[in-house]
Structure formats: structure tokens, C-alpha cells
């Protein structure tokens, strides 16, 4: 049941070229702790990635219903996950990601971050295997800094080193 102030976006009622922008516009009106619901006829995971790219450090993504006919996702503007985060930090809230997409998301964000920039992995266990995978894929082109080491949360700042060219590093490792 929808309350008077609840924001539900029925994506199928919006002109296709305006769907994602409408979601972003409504999200931008939310205060901390407020949420919107995306109601769609398929999993809107591309919206997640776009929103992560645009506003990575200030939302959570919770599936309320997962198909087969309808997907309902609660997107909440949140208070910072990481005590040491900066306003412009991109934070990957790994526990909220589907298991089969967790590592792919981390690798995709790493590949798209510019040299000198960073992102934070927020996880409920030490993601050290990701460190070794990044090392094997790209070589010594990043730093791995623990901001918080359990017991409940692990926060790691991954910074792509200045001058790092992951394509040439990767080619050199083949």
C-alpha cells in the first residue's frame, strides 16, 4: 500500500528515453533516510550502475520483489557507510549486490576509475581475494588501504596509481 508521500516510479508509464533520468531526478529530491521505489517489468540493474557512477556514496539498493513479472527496488538515500568517507567517494556496498555480480562490479569500477582516483569497497568480510585478482589482472598499478578491519565491516580504499595504464600493464602480464 502506497502512502501519500511515498515515491513509487512505475517505469513502464514513462517514455523510454526519459526513464533513467526520471529516476535520477526523483532520487535527487530525497533527504537522508528517504527512499523511492522503482517498479519495473525487468531487473533495472543498469540504473544501479549509473546511479553508482553518479552518486556512489549515498544510496542503498534493496530488492523487494524479483520478478518474474515485476521487480520492485527500494532505493534509499543514506547516511555515510564508511566513517572516513569523503563527500566525493564512490563506495561499493558489496553486501547489497547480487553474489554473482560482486567481483564484476569491483573490476568494472576499477577499470573505469582514472589514475589518481579511488573508490571504497565496503564489505562484511575481508575482500583480500579481490586484491589478488586485481594484482593478477593489472599488476602493481593500485594501492589497497584498509580504513576499517572488522569485526563487522571491512572498508578498503583502492586507488589507481598516477600514471597507471591498466591496458598496457595487462598486456605486459599476458
What does this structure look like?
The chain has 174 residues and is of the alpha/beta class. The chain folds into two domains: 1-79, TusA-like domain (Translation Initiation Factor IF3); 81-174, Translation Initiation Factor IF3 (2-Layer Sandwich), CATH 3.30.110.40. Helix content is 29%, strand content 28%. It is built from five helices and eight strands; from the N terminus they run E-H-E-H-E-E-E-H-E-H-E-E-H. The protein has helices spanning 19-28, 45-55, 102-112, 128-138, 166-172, and strands at 7-10, 35-40, 59-66, 71-77, 91-93, 118-123, 142-149, 154-160. Strands 1-2-4-3 form a four-stranded mixed β-sheet, with helices on one face. It has a four-stranded mixed β-sheet with strand order 5-6-8-7, with helices on one face. 20% of the residues are buried. Residues 166-174 have low confidence and may be disordered.
If you average the pLDDT, what whole number results?
Answer: 85
CATH topology call of the largest domain: Translation Initiation Factor IF3
CATH class of the largest domain: Alpha Beta
How would a crystallographer describe the biggest sheet? 4 strands, mixed
Radius of gyration: 18 Å
Structural class: alpha/beta
CATH superfamily of the largest domain: TusA-like domain
